[in-house]
Amino acid sequence: MPPGPDRLDATDARLVQALTEDPRATVMALSQRLGLARNTVQSRLARLESGGLLAPFEARVRPEALGYRLGAYMTVQVVQRSLEEVASALAALPEVLEVTALSGAADLLVRVVAVDADDLWRLTEQVLAVRGVERTDTALALRRYVDHRVAPLLERAAGADTPATG
Cross-referenced CDD domains, in alphabetical order (predicted)? Predict the structure, then answer.
């Protein structure tokens, strides 16, 4: 399948893979490492950034470094046809890191952080006060066994791990 505006080709994948391995690499260093022209690397990076295919830099900051040592996942049940309004209200809360629409019994999965249990209680009360929220259920994040990653997918897209055909 040819790359589209929302899809990485093998060269893009190799470029992002190189950036993952050395986030501080200059365009010239990436160019030399990948055997691409400097202008090619620069234009591909610009396209990836402007197209939203690269996450914002803030995604690399761990909430623990800001004092938010408690992580949790809330499932939120919402009044019918209120998803957009509830999601917007949740986005206004600084402790809300992600909001994902779900299929099934819960409507939203909300990843939150808090300083401690009392702070999580306060945040839960704020979420419950959002117009359109019917119910929440909270599960504490105790330990992360696999951090967010895309390296295995980049390796596959770059051609390093192509599935066998048979």
Answer: HTH_ARSR
